[in-house]
Every structure is written in structure tokens, then in C-alpha cells.
Specification:
Helix content is about 35%, strand content about 15%. It is α/β, with parallel strands linked by helices. An eight-stranded parallel barrel has the order 1-2-3-4-5-6-7-8, surrounded by five helices. Helix 6 (about 125-135) links the parallel strand 4 and strand 5 (about 140-145). Bound molecules: 3-methyl-2-oxobutanoic acid (KIV). It is an enzyme of class 2 (transferase).
Length: about 280
């Protein structure tokens, strides 16, 4: 037996079993070093299609492609040792119907080794979720604000206020009944998020929802203060990485211009130093 304890990466079934238990911790990641940074703290890591906005500078998630998700998924997969990998299905890769969704979900699993895929939509996606989950593809659902639908939703507004809450509740119940092992609730009123969490048997993962959800997720670049173009109300910044990086770059530029970098400890002599015996 090895002296090193075996690390057991959670499975979708483990996440499902956390319903009503200790809060599930999750962040997005898109690159290898950030995945290494978040791995130990998280139960699952999502390669979200937010990659398009925070890494590629796109104006929305609509321009994200399968190839982008595969490439970022592979970079993150190589880093994760503790947390489960979930990858977003990008806009246009699953909406045509269950067969198209299966083909693309299978590609994500085959080429990245992810444990599950996430897709947006409620009642209208139930048939697709049922098709995937009955064919060995674990699905995390995503209801409430679904950013791939901004053109039909009319923007990024809170979803499910007042009587509209019934629609979001019906979406959450539909994806749960269809076999999703967890559901992301994005930008919905806290009382609705609590009601959904009480009403369905699968974990709810909140983002702009409620501390009463079964878990939470944030876009990592938002919470690290690395993406600073705008800050949704639901984001708490736990770091100032953009400002810290900018200050470091300015200091480097100053030292290069002053010829104080590289210093003696960064340069090589003509003679190799003698090796210590
Ligand atoms: O794409 C993404 O990052 C997401 C999270 C916001 C849940 O879907």
C-alpha cells in the first residue's frame, strides 16, 4: 500500500448525494494554472462558456465553439487532481435535438475526459437531458438566467420575479425529472432559489441565487478580480489580480527602462561557477 493517500475525485453521483448536505463548492477555470489554483478547494470545476467573454474578449457567450471548449477542457483536465470536471456545451451544439447533443457531449467527454456536461434550458431541454442521461452522459442543467438566450430573454435581467417564478420552478422540476444530477440557478430571486432547492431532489448550484442553495459557483476571473470590465451584483471580489498584475508589469517596464533589470543575480558569467563538492 502506498504511503500517499489515494485522492478520490467526486463523481456526478457523489455530487447528487450531497443534496441537503455540506455546501458544494465550485468555480470556473479555463486554463491550466488557474485550474491548479482552484482544484483543491473545489468539488467540481466548470469550464464554462464564459471563457468566450473572460478569456477571448467576446461580447457574449454566443461565439464560443466546440473546438474552444475542447481545447480549454483539455488544459483544465491536465491540472485537476481533486475536483470533478464539468464542461459547458456551447451555443448551437445541442439545441437541434438529442442526437446532435449526444454527438457533441460524447466528443467533450472523449476528448477531455470530463465527467459531465452542462447545458442551458429547462422544460424545452428535458427531452434532450433524458436522452443523454439514459445514454451514459451525466448532465448538469442550468435554468434562470441562461446567457446563451440573451437575444430571446432581452438581456441579462433577473429571471423569475413574482408570477414568473412559476416558469423557473417548472424548468427546475423538468430538468430534475429528466435526470440531471444537479442544476445551476443563475440570477433568480433568493426566495425562489430557496423554494426550488426545497422542491427538487437534486442539488441546486447558485450564482446570483441564495446562500440556501446546495452549492455555489462563481466565474473565477470575477472573484479573483482578474476580469474587471464589469461586475455583476452577485460577484464578490476575493482578490485584485488584475490590479496586482498591472502594477507588476509597470514595475518591470520601469526597471527595464532604468537598466536595473536584469540585475547581477539574473545574468550569467562567461565562466560556469565551480560546482560545490
Ligand atoms: O459559463 C459559465 O461560466 C457558467 C457559470 C456562470 C455557471 O455557466
Amino acid at each position: 500500500m502506498s504511503a500517499t493517500a489515494q485522492i478520490r475525485v467526486p463523481t456526478p453521483q457523489d455530487i447528487l448525494a450531497r443534496k441537503g448536505g455540506d455546501p458544494i463548492v465550485s468555480l470556473t477555470a479555463y486554463t491550466h494554472p488557474i485550474a491548479e489554483m482552484v482544484d483543491e478547494a473545489c468539488d467540481f470545476v466548470l469550464v464554462g462558456d464564459s471563457v468566450g467573454m473572460v478569456i477571448h474578449g467576446l461580447p457574449s457567450t454566443l461565439g464560443v465553439t466546440m473546438d474552444m471548449m475542447v481545447m480549454h477542457g483539455q488544459a483544465v483536465a491536465r491540472a485537476l487532481k481533486h475536483s470533478m470536471l464539468v464542461i459547458d456545451m456551447p451555443f448551437g451544439s445541442y439545441e437541434e435535438g438529442p442526437e446532435q447533443a449526444f454527438r457533441n457531449a460524447a466528443r467533450l467527454m472523449r476528448e477531455t475526459g470530463c465527467a459531465a456536461v452542462k447545458l442551458e434550458g429547462g422544460v424545452e431541454m428535458a427531452e434532450t437531458i433524458r436522452f443523454l442521461t439514459s445514454r451514459s452522459i451525466p448532465v448538469m442543467a442550468h435554468v434562470g438566467l441562461t446567457p446563451q438566450a440573451i437575444n430571446t430573454l432581452g438581456g441579462y435581467a433577473v429571471q423569475g420575479r413574482g408570477e414568473d417564478g412559476d416558469r423557473v420552478m417548472a424548468d427546475a422540476k423538468a430538468v430534475s425529472d429528466a435526470g440531471a444530477f444537479a442544476v445551476v440557478l443563475e440570477k433568480v430571486p433568493a426566495n425562489l432559489a430557496d423554494g426550488i432547492t426545497a422542491a427538487i431532489p437534486i442539488p441546486t448550484i447558485g450564482i446570483g441565487a441564495s446562500a440556501g442553495c446546495d452549492g455555489q459557483i462563481l466565474v473565477v476571473d470575477d472573484m479573483l478580480g482578474l476580469f474587471t470590465k464589469f461586475k455583476p451584483k452577485f460577484v464578490k471580489r476575493y482578490g485584485t489580480l488584475f490590479d496586482d498584475g498591472k502594477a507588476a508589469v509597470e514595475q518591470y517596464a520601469k526597471e527595464v527602462r532604468a537598466r536595473s533589470f536584469p540585475a547581477p543575480e539574473h545574468i550569467f558569467a562567461d565562466q560556469a561557477p565551480e560546482k560545490k563538492k
